[in-house]
Amino acid sequence: LTLSRLADGVIMVIWGGVTGRDIIRKANQSLAGVNAKITGVALNNINMAKLSSYQYYYPYYHSYTIDEGGNKKA
Question: pTM here?
């Protein structure tokens, strides 16, 4: 915090999956308390394989209509 007063900006480094939201909020409040300007955030140690599995879970919406012959159309 002492050096943040002398710097033009601060980059907050967060360890993904380890650093909790409460700790991040407290750090942000502490930096704001000394008028530090947060210029960026670095998110480290992210398990990309774990994140990539989420792409398959977004919802799909389908609607069907009935054509003149009584058949379903997507």
Answer: 0.57
